[in-house]
């Protein structure tokens, strides 16, 4: 028995571009449907629920940014990955795309091999996310007080909206909020005896990036990475913070080791497909990250610094092993 082909929706006003792309993707084994306007695309996406959407930015009437925003605000289509197809290359346009909820962007003129590679990468990420969602559903059934915990964490997340708790550059939580949140989560997980996990993420050879491209480009790079990490997290309870310099840290409440490692892999791949140019990198020709993962059921002999220190140790090992990878370490007192 063969699996049904993945369904792709192309929203593009240029018929020639649509026909060429439809033929290529059809030959690659996908089922392709298309729409010639943003309004038609939203209607088809809502009724047919494709696995992925290829969306043109510059269209008459509703542009691609508005279409993506509408799709992300609909319950039926909010989880469908959207890849922008655009001739726009300015960093602000790219940031605007991610703010609208896009998973990725491809610069026109399209290269079919690149289109296929990015589609396959995002379909793989989506499948991993679905597996995580299944695990989360099982976890919810096991935890009697989960609803109460979510209510408390939602209140904490609203705190993130306050300017004092945001990192000015990346607009994710700052170190101050992280320190407070990890203490709160540690106490709750100690009381409930549930697993608390964190991920420490470091941009590989970032000083060299700044030296070659300048600090303004470095700032833009960190903004894109922060957005990429946020887009890889799909629970309201998960929190990403800027830990310092080019380091980010993620709190994963009620997340066991296997789930935390899988989230780390999703983040790693999400940053990779951003394809931020880095010609001088000793690793690849785009920006990469190293990630250290640690998990623990808190006990009175340990404290949050033990968990953070273990994640830092895992990150150190990832760097020593060549960087651009995810490493997990057990917490040992």
From TrEMBL:
GO terms for cellular component: plasma membrane. The lineage of its organism: Bacteria, Pseudomonadati, Pseudomonadota, Gammaproteobacteria, Thiotrichales. Residues 7-123 form the Response regulatory domain. GO terms for molecular function: diguanylate cyclase activity. Keywords: Coiled coil, Phosphoprotein. This is diguanylate cyclase. Residues 125-166 form a coiled coil. Its EC number is 2.7.7.65. Residues 194-331 form the GGDEF domain.
